[in-house]
């Protein structure tokens, strides 16, 4: 018996015992466990009878047994990578859950000092603006001042670990606008757009009665969104007298919608995203990654996000279909500036987002 045969035998036995232990501790999926056991048994038999591997290889169209072993190793490595990726995703989700819990707890401590419940005397005070903030000092104050001038007074800011002066500007808005109910929920570290949404949505689900709200507006303070588009949203909500619509989705591509200075490459990417959303999730949304939206609180309570990054938009589209949420698209106007293009989602990230979509759809457990 050669040294290589002995090495194969020891490796196979080792893999069997290790996979058995990992499976007992629920560290690997059943599919990975079965693949490792069968592969290890196959290599173990082949180590004692090399001709068996050669004969088997030729039956499946591979000339040499050594090549088959290499292919099997590649498959095992791929399965191991998927398992590690699953564990990493779960660890990241747990970290975000902890960060979110701490942020919400600190916010509630602050709210104990305010007179409760929040005021609810005018029509626009049925709305809460959910605003993610990450290093938005350049445009934050001007954007929110415009919203306040429009007449909205209830804000939930999720400061996602900003390292510029965004938090100071939010606290300044709190001090200079006592007529507004401004809530600041701060992550101690940056966790991503999806994680910020998870924190905000979780807070709203738990405390929407305290906030005296019926609708949640998701809004970005990077200067792209036009607050005057709320006229179209409010008109659509007013027409929904029976409250049959769960979500009002802003769209740049329905009749009346438009953009300023949108790069041609961005148009192509958005068209592809529309096709992929229909293919993967069966939702006929014309602008699946636009975040200018209004959720009825009862609908938002049914949405569960897991992604820390930009995949959250795909999760919402998927749940629109799964949970049969009724939606209506509303025309909006998006302004692209040098700042917003630099600050926002990069075209190159679309490839990574597509990979994450496939991974989450077919491989993540």
Describe this structure in words.
- This protein has helices spanning 3-24, 30-48, 50-59, 65-111, 140-150, 166-176, 193-211, 230-239, 264-281, 297-300, 312-322, 338-343, 349-362, and strands spanning 127-133, 154-160, 181-187, 215-219, 247-251, 258-260, 293-296, 327-331, 333-335.
- It has 365 residues and is of the alpha/beta class.
- It has two domains: 3-92, no CATH class; 114-362, Alpha-Beta Complex (Spore Coat Polysaccharide Biosynthesis Protein SpsA, Chain A).
- Helix 1 (3-24) packs antiparallel against helix 2 and helix 3 crosses helix 4 (65-111).
The CATH topology annotation of the largest domain reads as Spore Coat Polysaccharide Biosynthesis Protein SpsA, Chain A
C-alpha-based Rg, rounded: 26 Å
Fraction in helix:
55-70%
CATH architecture descriptor text of the largest domain: Alpha-Beta Complex
């Amino acid at each position: 018996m050669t040294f290589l045969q002995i090495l194969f035998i020891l490796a196979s036995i080792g893999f069997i015992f290790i996979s058995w232990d990992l499976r007992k501790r629920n560290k690997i999926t059943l599919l990975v466990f079965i693949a490792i056991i069968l592969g290890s048994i196959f290599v173990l038999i082949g180590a004692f009878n090399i001709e068996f591997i050669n004969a088997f290889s030729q039956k499946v169209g591979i000339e040499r047994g050594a090549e088959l072993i290499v292919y099997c190793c590649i498959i095992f490595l791929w399965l191991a990578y998927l398992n590690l990726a699953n564990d990493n995703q779960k660890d990241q989700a747990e970290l975000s859950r902890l960060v979110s819990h701490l942020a919400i707890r600190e916010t509630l401590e602050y709210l104990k000092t305010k007179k409760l419940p929040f005021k609810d005397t005018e029509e626009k005070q049925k709305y809460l603006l959910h605003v993610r903030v990450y290093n938005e000092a350049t445009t934050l104050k001007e954007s929110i001042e415009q919203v306040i001038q429009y007449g909205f007074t209830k804000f939930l800011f999720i400061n996602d670990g900003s390292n510029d002066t965004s938090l100071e500007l939010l606290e300044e808005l709190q001090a200079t606008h006592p007529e507004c109910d401004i809530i600041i929920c701060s992550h101690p570290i940056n966790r991503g757009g999806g994680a910020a949404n998870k924190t905000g949505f979780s807070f709203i689900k738990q405390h929407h009665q305290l906030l005296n709200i019926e609708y949640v507006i998701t809004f970005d303070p990077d200067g792209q969104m036009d607050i005057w588009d709320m006229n179209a949203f409010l008109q659509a909500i007013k027409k929904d007298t029976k409250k049959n619509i769960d979500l009002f989705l802003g769209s740049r591509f329905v009749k009346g919608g438009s953009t300023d200075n949108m790069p041609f490459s961005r148009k192509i990417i958005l068209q592809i995203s529309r096709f992929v959303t229909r293919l993967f999730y069966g939702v006929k949304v014309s602008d699946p990654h636009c975040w200018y939206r209004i959720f009825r609180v009862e609908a938002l309570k049914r949405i569960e996000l897991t992604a820390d990054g930009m995949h959250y938009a795909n999760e919402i589209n998927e749940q629109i279909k799964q949970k049969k949420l009724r939606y209506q698209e509303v025309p909006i106007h998006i302004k692209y500036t040098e700042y917003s293009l630099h600050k926002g989602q990069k075209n190159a990230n679309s490839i990574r987002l597509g990979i994450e979509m496939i991974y989450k759809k077919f491989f993540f457990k």
